[in-house]
Fold each of these.
Amino acid sequence: MECVKPLRIALTKGRLEKFSIEIFEKIGIDTEELKNKGRRLVLSDKKNNIQFVLVKAVDVLTYVEHGAADIGIVGKDTLMEEGIDFYEVVDLKVGKCKFALASIPSFNLNEGYNRKKIASKYPRVTREYFRKLGIDVEIIKIEGSVELAPILGLSDAIVDIVETGTTLKENGLVIFDEICDISARMIVNRASMKMRVDEIKKLINDVQEVVNTRG
Amino acid sequence: MPKGGVEMEGLNKYIPEGTRDILFNECYSKIEIENLLRDVYKTYGYHEIISPTLEFYDVFNMNNQPISQEKMYKLFDNRGRILVLRADMTTPIARIAATKIKKEMFPMKLCYSQNIFRVNEILNGKLSEFTQSGVEILGVEGIRGDVEAIYTGIEALKKIGLKDFKIEIGDSIFFKELTENINLDESKKETLRLLIQNKNISALKEFLENNKENIDKNISLVLERLPELFGGKEVITETRELLNNLDNITSLRCIENVYEVMEKLGLSKYIAIDLGMVQNLNYYSGLIFRGYCMEVGDSILSGGRYDRLIENFGENLPATGFAINVDIVLEALRVQGKLKSDKGVQKVVFCKAEDLDKGYALLKAIKSSGIKTEMALFDSEKEALDYCGKIKCECLINITDNIEYKIINNEWIKSQYKF
């Protein structure tokens, strides 16, 4: 059955935006509107019947979960923190970074019996990491510049995303453990996957191929 | 001391997040859908049941419970025992089957249409109270029960006028059978299962590569393809080839058999196969299925076989069933433009207060001829006529003065009325 409704793809604004556009360009999607978006929020490729929307990372999940967007491009960090199951069909291998436990050099996780305070923008990831270790910690949610927390004595350590490690180094923090790798993922709404099988399978294959050839 | 305003009012003008008031046409449509679904079940011989809104927490607290405890609304009864607002219907029906229904009554088919309560994350746009309409088929094993459930589900969705929906079928045993003889511990198998459930193709490849000494070559090939093994009947053929016609995988046969029945019934356009459906392995014990349609992102129907559930209540009964999420189906029908609105009133009767007896006698007479009619609740004929305009009713009978008003060319035309 021919489907007139365009395939909607929600892209994460900011860091991942450029990478996503590159990939879609390589598979022959017209990204002209995306690149010259101005103040428009919905950008289309009419020829391929695709619509793009640019939203914040967490909102990508919300749009895709409700089926308002069929497909989303979002960081693994957001997926882990929100804890919602999606079809996570392609690892785009861009926007690479990792979750790490970091603190001032004198920090020792196993020292003493006092409950350690851990500051993070990612409380769920933090909780699961420490549960796996079997360590009881107090988690403090911080919205930004998490590196400050151990320096000012708000927390004993932090769990945060580390890309190059420069910010940590410049603020005198060191990594104590690398929790896991993160990169951008392509996710698909469950109903869309089943109702638009051919279109989406093709898109997945095309994108996967671009990822493979880039190595 | 609070001086009026917001503090004094409290929340008395608001409703909790995740709940809603359903008014007029929406209410009409919802009830209409529930009735249509109920009709389908009943004409196929299902018995409707009602279970309490409140259940003991213990009913839902079991190994492999499908709904985690933080998703249930809890309260205490007058003796301090934990109660929950019914968090699904299958569990209470399992309790009823094991404790209330006489053994010789099985096999038995039950249906229901009740509200379900789940605690949602704040502001995620999902309902905390929603209606499920569904069936449970108790005491039947294998294809007989599976076909009955899927056939009834399709008929139900067709009956309410839903277009372009798909029921996808899979089998929770399939993954178990595939991984039975591979040399991985349970936690690794669980990792593998999650990768397949979430169609995490690249990570799955990596996992299989890292564990290749422990997994048979043919099995590994199927596992790797599993996230993409969905679609039509060709999926079965491809899997057979990949498995090199290994015939000890009984679940594949199972899916194929059900598919073939549906095909012969001319219903295959509603059926898709997804061998990568591997959720909740400890709860489901055989064929599982889910319904989707284009207009909504959530599944509209979900169901499957749960032969081990009723054990928790002391009886060993195989069972299968499904639940349709009425609120989501309602949304899908609305987008498809398939919602019918309530028929308006065709006649309004007006009378002076002292003639109320006459008025209601007339009302009854008109109604008995099958015409939808209502009494005007006004003291003057003018107000009654205005009301007719508001509700788009084109006929008013003033029984006090024996006058009939009809709209002709947008104007009220008066004539003599004889009762």
Amino acid sequence: MRAASQAPVVSVEDLVFSRGTVSILERASLEVFPGDFIGLIGANGSGKTTLLEILLGLLQPQSGRVTVLGTTPQLARPQVGYVPQWLRFDPDFPITVEEVIMMGRLGKAPKLGPFRKEDHLRAEEAMRKVDVLDLRRRPVGRLSGGQRQRVLIARALVNDPELLLLDEPTANVDSRMETGIYELLHSLRTETTIILVSHDVGFITSHANRVACLNKRIACHPTADLTGEMIQDLYSGPVEMIKHECRLCEEEKCSD
Amino acid sequence: MTEFFQALASHAFLQNAVVCSLLASIACGVIGTYVVVKRITFISGGISHTVLGGMGIAYFLGGSPMVGAVIAALVAAVIIGLVTLRAKQHEDTLIGALWAVGMAIGLLFIAKTPGYSVNLQSYLFGNILMVSRREVYFLLGLDLVIIAVAITFYKGFLGVCFDEQFCRLQGVKVDALYLLLLCLIALTVVILVQVVGIVLVIALLTLPAAVAGQWSGSLKQMMRTACALCAVVSLAGLAVSYPYNLPAGATIVLFAGAGYLVSTLLQLLLRRT
């Protein structure tokens, strides 16, 4: 049981959001506590990315209450790391791994002139953590999908965030690289609270401690309680559930 | 070619042209790189064509066409920037409108200016051989402003070009940086108008940077390569056009176009092998 005194990292209450006449979120509620690894799943268009953008303060809900780290999403931003989908970027953009990661320090570095030594040291530490230090001078366009995703994770980690938000980090990544990214996220679980948007229910059930099923509303379950029927309802179609090796079982944190 | 170098040693107008080409190459390499990676060529085209409006009004009022060009380019940059940021859906129409209206204003004011009519062709297609020493100093000043701002805000510009949304999350003043970048493009356009004229500015602003982008792994490397390429095509264009009495601006742009074609074909070949 969670200690009653423990303040939530994210608190979403009765959130309503629509684009024009299309309703995206309808009285969605969610609480995320320190150390949680939440897997956010749902069909395409169910509002997963919208919810992340509200948590980042990029979108304003029509009604409802959102707090992140006890304050507004905008004020919480310096303590939040965000990993977008790589597909948003131009693969031919001439930028090195180190330059992408240094971007994570833009909010802390002086507004004018170059980065300070401290910014470079922080970036180096983040590169070491996600194992891309030897790629630092390489253009990101020449990296594999998995390596690029690691670079974006390093950029999000460069300020030691208290909350890490990831938007489908394994989309368009081959299965071998995917495993590497999952291992990396699993290792970060002890350092920060994680909310991961993914369609990979297999990974989520074996690594996340709770699953938030989003379909305009949010139904949050302990991972072990997730059933094939629930997922079938969520995606509105037949699904086949394959049980992966459960990392939570290995660490005796699973009630399955 | 020998004829060009002999003339260069003795003619001040040719020396001015060479210095003007080199100054333009610096601004062109640095700012052209941002135009290419941010994919705002059409915006730059809009800015460059409004320049004629400013030049025409200045000419009509008896002022310096260069000053008119600077004011018109900066006004166009701010208008286009604000519309892009606040009402993206109207961006295309507005750029098209500024493009044509700017030219129309310029033509009307030039037509109605009393006295000798100005050689319109030199505004539209450039006449680098007519650049005076005073204009060279003016271009040097513009160049210094562009370089100082580009160095000071380098990391912000890089961030805004690569990932605007992430920069917003970091608390970076994305809108202000974007407007500043458009203003630098405006100043660069004014410099390049002296070399190749209003109509051909876009080619010189984008082609050397596009070639550099095909062979560079970082923005800084792309800028250095683009500056060098711009200097090479400008000087080659001058050197070839002078003895054959060809229009310098058009010759320079043809060199830039040929360079882009060769570079793209090489890239395609390398990707196949």
